[in-house]
Amino acid sequence: MAHFDLPLDELRAYRSSSQEPTDFDAFWAETLAEAGSHPLDARFEPVATGLTTVEVHDVTFAGFGGHPVKGWLVLPAAATGPLPVVVEFIGYGGGRGLPHTHLLWASAGFAHFVMDTRGQGGTWAGGDTPDPVGSAPAAPGFMTRGVEDPSTYYYRRLYTDAVRAVAAARSHPGVDATRTAVAGASQGGGIALAVAGLVPDLAAVAPDVPFLCDFPRATTITDRNPYREIGVYLKTYRGRVEQVARTLAYFDGVHFAARATAPALFSAALEDLTCPPSTVFAAFNAYAHADKKIEVYAFNDHEGGESYQQAARLRWLPARLAA
Q1: Domains within the chain, CATH numbers bracketed
Q2: Which position among 212, 221, 232, 235 has the lowest Cβ density within 10 Å, counted as fewest Cβ atoms?
Q3: In the annotation, is 186 catalytic?
């Protein structure tokens, strides 16, 4: 596969055409206030895993609408005192999986909170959180569920779950709430960006090859799923282009990035047809905090940096979460 998007020097200057809704902040303030009317009710149940270097808790907390959302909390077994925490969000189609697949951050001395993704997990890893909210007709996948209106869109529920996941992680006595990072790859990176714009006191943000950014360009430059789900839907519902674009604008990572208040480490891959590099740079270039960096992988597709990016995170994050 060859490079297909803008040259790197143009990517570094590229700005999205996504139009921010005038009531963007009011929409999200109302959404989070409604979620806050439900008790968080975060519960942590110890799990016997056979692992000796970590202790694992099966987590349940109340997300959007008070719906129960699952997660894992993984702590270093020998930890003393509250630890900085990395709250991680999962890629498209995946769930929280099994706890022994989440050892990196606890091995580095951090608490690690992994949020399950409502309704997902049937494609890989496996999930345990249903989405009890129905939808009008939609293309297969999650991108068009409730897309007729921002109030019914699937990602309104998921982004709200993610904000509540941060609160749940911070509620555990083994976590230092003042040292919280959010991270994720692909869909998880897009969710991390949303949280960066909605939670004002994070210590760090690490979105890898983030999805859900610069919808106007993403939906027209690539025909690979999941973005193509939107095109398939609009191919059927020909008269809804402006209506869908209006909904998506409330969930565009570019607008959340513009509100971010924490240092960030991004990554982009120049042969990425799933999350084209221009869409990632759109969020990076809009990102409001001055302490930001992007790792670029010139000959990778959506796998991005993989273990190389993990190593970059391990070099970058400790200083941002230091006491």
Answers
A1: 8-318 (3.40.50.1820)
A2: 235
A3: yes
